[in-house]
Specification:
By secondary structure, the chain is of the alpha+beta class. It has 1 helix and 5 strands; from the N terminus they run E-E-E-E-E-H. Strands 3-2-1-4-5 form a 5-stranded antiparallel sheet, covered by helices on one side.
Length: 76
């Protein structure tokens, strides 16, 4: 299974950027997208693969929080 998560770009240094994932900052390669500080990006395997608007990013984060808030997951 592949996961792609939204994060907010807080600093850009060449082809790399510091991306904020809810208070956790990770360095990410942004060479494949045209992004500016303050924009949201979709991160997969350490690479930004898409720029997204803030509303879409917040909706995606809310969905992830809902999934993660369940105590048990049923695969029936």
């Amino acid at each position: 299974m592949c996961l792609a998560l939204p994060g907010k770009v807080v600093k850009i240094n060449g082809e790399n950027a510091d991306v904020d994932f809810g208070g956790v900052i990770r360095e990410t390669n942004v060479a494949m997208v045209d992004v500016e500080v303050g924009q949201w990006v979709v991160i997969h395997a350490g690479f930004a693969i898409e720029v997204m608007d803030e509303e879409e990013a917040q909706d995606t984060i809310a969905l992830w929080n809902e999934v993660l808030s369940h105590d048990e997951v049923s695969y029936e």
